[in-house]
Amino acid sequence: MLMPKRVKYRRQQRQPDVRAGDVRMPQPLCLAHAAFQQLLGARGQLQRRLQTRALADEDADGRANGFLRHAFGQIRHVVARLGHQGQQQMLGADIGMAHGLRLFLRKLSFEQMMGEAVEQYAFTAHEKYRQKHLADAQARGATPKELSLVRQEPEMADWSDLDEFYKEGHRSQIRYLGERLESFNMSIGLRPVLPGAADTIMDLYGPVLEQLSELEHERWMKDKRADGWRYGKRDSELKLHPDMRPYQELDESTKEFIRMSVRNVPDYLKEICYELYRKSF
Q1: Is 258 exposed, middle or buried (0-12, 13-18, 19+ CB in 10 A)?
Q2: What gap in Å lies between CA 113 and CA 174, rounded to an integer?
Q3: What is the pTM of this model?
Q4: Disulfide engineering: 178 pairs with which of 96, 110, 131, 199, CB 3.0-4.6 Å?
Q5: How far apart (Å, rounded) are the C-alpha atoms in residues 189 and 171?
Q6: How far apart are CA 90 and CA 13, in angstroms?
Q7: Residue 80 has what pLDDT?
């Protein structure tokens, strides 16, 4: 009698965990991590389109939003499969990833609300700066020759001729402020003008002014660091500046200079039909 051949079964090997950064995570968590990486890539694509003003193309905007929805859907699907224990593990393993996601959502929320109005704000801020800078020189009793030199300063150029460095400085101011005002722990927010609203902020003073001035200084230091500047005695060639330190450590005259620039924000926003308001929780 012929005996059937014995079939050899291979022992199923456990799928190895995969590293994501410095954290070893099971395969399902890596799927969520990969979906988040897609979101980061989408954020970069969105920022590049904003810089080139390509959001005016409705088709491109629709494709970008569709890509983001797909990536968010992947994360929700994977997290639902993990169960309670897996979700807790993911929460512990990816706390840095979650922080990055919150930052991304704030950026996305701000860009969806304000969009190309950022460029309008930057233009308005530049024109107001030119007017005030010239008026200050006249108030000091500057001679016609001195006024001519003021008009020739690089930051006094017409918007169409203005160096991109100065343009980006104006854009950066409202982006940095607007993205942080999207946070739930901020008591004020940014929105399109709501006629007759009782919570509209017309003037900045007291603790709110101080809070926004600190944010503006953080923004200024962030831009400076990105350009290679460090703390030290003022030296443009070595990129050293004495104000490259926390807001609380600045002298009062420097703080007041920052406050003066921040006080102008409500007026600049009003010019483009936006406003600050007090949030109600």
Answers
A1: buried
A2: 13
A3: 0.64
A4: 110
A5: 18
A6: 24
A7: 55
